[in-house]
């Protein structure tokens, strides 16, 4: 009897030990569980952010538009079933690209802007639909698009996506996701990107020539072009803070020469240009060493425009943002001081409403600008998207699927 009780006790002890062991989690399991928790929290945070933005109303001159009405069939995590790794592929590939080109963020922002501003975010700016017809001009050839950067990088990301999920992720979504990730890498704010965009089957040369804001546009023209796409004065000032402050690329002296010597046929410089800044620009455009082989000068960053001792950068044959360029509000501080590089920049101070928002963005540490930028980019990246059966998913971003 005693032996039987002893045997049962040992059995119970063994069962207890096994149950304890089974209840333990190995380090890899703990890490996986923690990762899953973090992802869940991040997703909930993003969803909550989206909810807040959907609830906010955006005023325009003619109507009030709810951001929820701007989604046009896009979804959060659209590829969760047919390509669940899509967003992580974009993120990791973008990180590798950023390590090689830390100014690519601003190039992609400009590329996204030019794409979305013309017929919506449909990757039409990539497309060569000329079918070899030299008389057919494509969107990429329009004057405002000739200096766009980032097309090759999106092709690289698209190739990685198609290696994992052939023919699933569109070029339009690739650009939208890559731009957001590049913004975050450059120190900019996170904003949610809805996916499910499809690609246009045609490009729009004439529209790009006419409807993309130009460096010499006055404030009336700039506000008109943005309002046609549902942006009010505050959103316009906010978006120009990144589009103009960092994204301009190479600036031809031809764009600013009339501001320096013969503004509007007066024979005098633009009176809105700060005197010291005017001298810096004159020296830059007179110095033969300051021009590239195509007659352009490298752009200055918003931070550099504040420093008279290093206002312009003329190294090499291409314009690049120096290491350390970040998302900040120096663009607006420059405008307050009359140091807007382009006429269209400084024109933000010519209208009472836009000047008020310039002052708002210049007045703090950049928090207000960054917060509004997130909201504006959600709206920008959802403009005129093609979803469902509209458009196509291109295999090669430069060609319609039928030609790939």
UniProtKB/TrEMBL annotation:
Residues making up the signal peptide according to the UniProt record: 1-23
GO CC terms: extracellular region; plant-type cell wall
Listed EC numbers: 1.11.1.7
Cofactor, how bound (note): Binds 2 calcium ions per subunit. Binds 1 heme b (iron(II)-protoporphyrin IX) group per subunit.
Keywords: Calcium, Disulfide bond, Glycoprotein, Heme, Hydrogen peroxide, Iron, Metal-binding, Oxidoreductase, Peroxidase, Secreted, Signal
Residues at the active site: 114 (proton acceptor)
A GO molecular-function annotation: metal ion binding
Domain Plant heme peroxidase family profile, first and last residues per copy: 73-401
Cofactor(s) required for function per UniProt: Ca(2+); heme b
Catalytic activity: 2 a phenolic donor + H2O2 = 2 a phenolic radical donor + 2 H2O
Binding site for substrate: 213
Cystine connections: 83-165, 116-121, 171-397, 253-285
Highest taxon above the source species: Eukaryota
Database matches in CDD domains: secretory_peroxidase
Marked site (Transition state stabilizer) residue numbers: 110
Entry similarity comment: Belongs to the peroxidase family. Classical plant (class III) peroxidase subfamily.
Protein's name in the database: Peroxidase
Species for this entry: Populus trichocarpa
Phylogenetic placement of the source organism: Eukaryota, Viridiplantae, Streptophyta, Embryophyta, Tracheophyta
